[in-house]
Amino acid sequence: MTAILPPGVSLTFVTALLVPLIIGFLVGIIAKYAIKIGVAIAIIIIILIAVGFVSPNQIVQPLVQFFEKSGPSLAPKVAQVAGYLPYSSITFIVGFVIGFFIKG
Prior knowledge:
By secondary structure, this protein is mainly alpha-helical.
């Protein structure tokens, strides 16, 4: 079998570049859609408050209670998941930017 890679470039090197790029791309797409959903929810809440169906206290109070109860227990889990992401890799950042800014 002939080598399709240039001399001095190993399959391990190519894999080490592509894996963070693909993970960054997927995280970028997920972040983009999460922000879109968050903005849509915020707009709906603002409209409901403006029309008078709900008061700001009805929205803020449950959120504060949720973060007071579950915030301390969620922090280590979030840190653990963030530890899996290769965010210090330039290929991850490039993949994230491509995933975040692609049209769709």
